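<context>
A single protein, sequence plus fold
<entry> Chain with its tokenised backbone below
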Amino acid sequence: MLLIDGPMGSELARRGVATPAPGWSAYAVESRPEVVEEIHEEYARAGAHVHRGNTFRTQPKIFPSGYEELVRRAHSLLRRAVGDRPEGQTPWLVGCLAPVEDCYRPYLSPPEPAARRAHRQVAVALQSAGFDTILCETFPHGGEACIAVEEAVRTGLVTWVSLTAGPDGTLMTPEAMEAAARDCVAAGASAVLVCCTSATITLPYVDRLARIGVPIGAYANAGEPSSGLGWGAEPTRAAAAYADLAAEWIASGASMIGACCGTGPAHIAELALRITTRRSFAPRPPLPRATRR
């Protein structure tokens, strides 16, 4: 079982850090690096083993002459915050590669040549910065997700992909996500996850992903504030409610679990408690179809 960290963007906003469009959380790499590092540290203390750098929006389209430096700084902040785990296990240091346009508007996905060029640039920057894994993250468009996976795999790094149906599940059906996931695995992804879909509707997507024959996982959106799973809800109760749902994903075959928008370190701590009381983390497991340099 691998425990993934929680969100960066909504945690920055909760702590009063501005995350305006189009760069969102990426601006904080320069404007508030100490807060970015603090958030990474809190997820590490909570028990996360998979740590994502703040690279979701460090893209050439947004920062034409500065994205590579932002990627390097994001990696440095993550490495300084996380280091080696006390138990001697090496953490996964994951660089995130996002859709070129918007993770909730698949109709904006650019044509193949433009998408491939942009994803190649970011993938190479992530490799050069020192990340050991690339996560093609929060893709609502299966075709663009495959392109991103192909370019990430070309770097020689472990490559995972996470697909989203959107918070309300309208961007992909479970069946469509399974089909997209199979295409991504054929393109070289060694693990597939569902992310940033409301936790209350994530289970059907996990059920479909469980059919594809590679490690799968889920890190869900807290959904509507009224759900009581995050977004300022009382942390202990929200984390427990979220973990109850995550237990269903694990029972359905998920071996990589984390949390997405609206959650926070309390959610990761609760997941860590439940996972470690069930079974302690093993050393980093090998994932299929992965090549390291």
About this structure: Residues 112-129 form the longest helix (18 residues).
